[in-house]
Task: structure prediction
Amino acid sequence: MKEFKKFISRRNEIDMAVGLILATYFSAIIKSLVNDVIMPPVGILIGGVDFADLKFIIKESQGEVAEVAINYGIFINTIITFLIVSFAIFIVIKIQQNQGDIRKKRKGFRRSTTNFQRAGVSN
Result:
């Protein structure tokens, strides 16, 4: 039990767990955005089609046996969800990189200012 407590209390594992939880709910929000907000108007624009209902039926249902179908509409929804999530992650990473670049420039500016002051150079 002590070993487990030591493992779980390390900073990296906690950060990873929080990230995983947030990613799970972020994915659910994006899925709802695609299925409930984006796809209905797109369906109307292309003739009132609900993408979730688009499928190619291989074998009709018979009594208790369900139909066998390729649900390509759900696949299209999944692709759109993936593209939105990928774009959102891209934007987050770009923002983080830009902030890191700004911090590096500020540190460099502070260091150069300090060097000038040490050398006795005034404005």
